[in-house]
Amino acid sequence: MNQHARPNRPALDSYWMPFTANRQFKRAPRLLAGASGMHYTDMDGRPVLDGTAGLWCVNAGHGRREIASAVERQLLQLDYAPSFQMGHPIAFEFAERLAAIAPGPEGQRLDRIFFTGSGSESVDTALKIALAYQRAIGQGTRTRLIGRERGYHGVGFGGISVGGLVNNRRAFPTLPGTDHLRHTHDIARNAFTREGLPAHGAELADDLERLVALHGADTIAAVIVEPVAGSTGVLLPPEGYLQRLREAATRHGILLIFDEVITGFGRLGSPFAADHFGVVPDLVTTAKGLTNGVIPMGAVFAGRHVHDALMQGPEGAIELFHGYTYSGHPAACAAGLATLDIYEREGLLTRAAALAGHWAGAMHDLRAAPNVVDIRTIGLVAGVELAPREGAPGARAYEVFVECLARGLLIRVTGDIVALSPPLVVEAGQIDEMAATLGEVIRATP
Ligand code: PLP
Fold it and tell me: In the chain, fewer beta carbons within 10 Å around the N or the C end?
């Protein structure tokens, strides 16, 4: 859209909005009309600094012409092709490019790639691959899936079953045969950790041992965690936690899945969290930054041992009865390839590492503001946790969100936690602006 064209205000009745207080929103709508670089434009043409990369996805910033042109070219060349029993070149090309930067060290990269349409689909795909893998290696009794409290793995039935956010679960039945590790959030011991990872809590990874003792390892197929839990309010893994979880999973023949829908594609300062923490999972789920958020797409990265175990049976047999109409959609692949070009040319998959110190400094300066009970940063992510108002959980942070927007800054809140995750093209001055606005608003909010 031409940024200068002002769209008309739309009628609001028919669109049932996702994860939104619809009635409240429609009384006082917050509409974004355009975007370029680090900024959105609202309906009145005012700039809004994007503190959240949209929904953790617009890593290369908004309005990248190169991506738009690549999508247009692809749509005119080949708009859609069936994804089952047929192929088209750009899906293979994109998979090869992704394989070259796939999570894991050289020689151990998870370079077999299954395309999906979203993060939720990536999660359900990874869970199904894990089950199919166990069956294929003669471990068909392993059907249990382990997640973690406070985890967010999207909204499919698989994802909510291993997820650990009560509001996403309470209205829906979840899969039988799931269980959860305890979460790692521990303000009492780890508040305001500024350097490195929280010192306390690695032993929580031993929960996997507890669940093995309870259920039997021979019933457990996989354990899935977000290396850094995002949607629940930015929870960092305690020092040594992920390594310990990896060791326990290996010991018991359980596949380890990292859900990197947020952490993938440079958010922490490394291409993937698996690289950042030096822990190699068996499967990695991604979406969001895969296409800079501009065309819906997800990808599951699988280790060769997982992939190869399934490539057996009669030559003409379909090895995995799973896939989507839009797996490897040509337009999404075009967007993804153009996105990767930008990431590589502009060094965006590691840029967060260079800015992390400045980012942490700016965010931790908010410590002195009233009602701030913890600040957590890693790469270009921050969680600023506020004390809930007596009897009104979430109200304080919601007011902070609304007021930041009024002052031209988009943040995200979950409960009473403010989450920030700007596009990876953010400049130091814009980081300072975010911290200054957020600080002023927190100070002005009772
Ligand atoms: N997994 C994680 C870790 C996420 O943060 C999200 C979305 O925020 C999802 C899965 C779901 O992705 P989507 O909304 O694309 O289905």
Answer: C
